[in-house]
């Protein structure tokens, strides 16, 4: 995959950055997507799952986002439970604006309306974050805003096999 100089100030290290909730999709959809991209010669960053509970998003992940041409955000049922995922999400949208990074989102077994209106698991997660950080905290307001932005981006909606 060719790197466009407009996307990265220098040559991008990765073609694709995968943002996902590990417990939901690491060993299923995300793993298959990662291997399919790699088989096509697409240099893809997928975190190794070594972040510990309570850690903040690491500089390695932030740098990988910045050094990618494209970010794929895999919105699954428990994505918004993770402050790491939400922080990645904010960084991805910052890179979209500042570096013209392409962003593609996938709804995986989650209703896009639940993300848009922050209902269901997304509403429950945001309520927990409000209790932890404060309802009007800059962090929570930013997370809510970026979730609303990504709903309107180009991407896919993959429903469960049952329906």
Walkthrough of the structure:
There is one protein chain. With 163 residues, this protein is of the alpha/beta class. It is built from 7 helices and 5 strands, in the order βααβαβαβαααβ. It has helices at residues 22-25, 29-39, 59-66, 83-99, 112-117, 120-133, 138-151; strands at residues 14-19, 44-45, 68-75, 102-108, 155-158. A 5-stranded parallel β-sheet has the order 2-1-3-4-5, with helices on both faces. β3, α4 and β4 (102-108) form a beta-alpha-beta unit. It is globular and about 45 Å long. The termini are far apart.
Quick tags:
163 residues, alpha/beta, disordered N terminus, 5 strands, 7 helices
How would you write the strand order of the largest sheet?
Answer: 2-1-3-4-5
Report Rg. Answer: 15 Å
Overall 3D shape: globular
Helix content: 40-55%
Q: What's the arrangement of secondary structure elements?
A:
Elements lengths: L13 E6 L2 H4 L3 H11 L4 E2 L13 H8 L1 E8 L7 H17 L2 E7 L3 H6 L2 H14 L4 H14 L3 E4 L5
Parallel strand pairs: 1-2, 1-3, 3-4, 4-5
Helix pairs in contact: 3-4, 4-7
Could you give a quick summary of the protein structure above?
Helix content is 45%, strand content 17%.
């Amino acid at each position: 995959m060719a790197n466009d100089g407009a996307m990265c100030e220098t040559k991008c290290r990765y073609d694709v950055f995968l943002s996902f909730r590990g417990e939901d999709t690491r060993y299923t959809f995300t793993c298959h997507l990662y291997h399919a991209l790699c088989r096509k010669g697409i240099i893809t960053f997928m975190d190794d799952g070594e972040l510990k509970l309570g850690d903040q998003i690491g500089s390695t992940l932030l740098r990988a986002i910045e050094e990618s041409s494209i970010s794929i955000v895999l919105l699954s049922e428990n994505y918004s439970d993770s402050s790491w995922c939400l922080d990645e999400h904010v960084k991805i949208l910052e890179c979209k604006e500042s570096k013209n990074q392409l962003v593609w989102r996938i709804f995986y077994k989650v209703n896009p309306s639940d993300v848009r209106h922050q209902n269901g698991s997304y509403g429950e997660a945001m309520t927990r974050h409000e209790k932890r950080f404060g309802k009007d905290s800059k962090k929570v307001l930013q997370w809510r805003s970026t979730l609303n932005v990504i709903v309107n981006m180009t991407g896919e909606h993959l429903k469960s096999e049952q329906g």
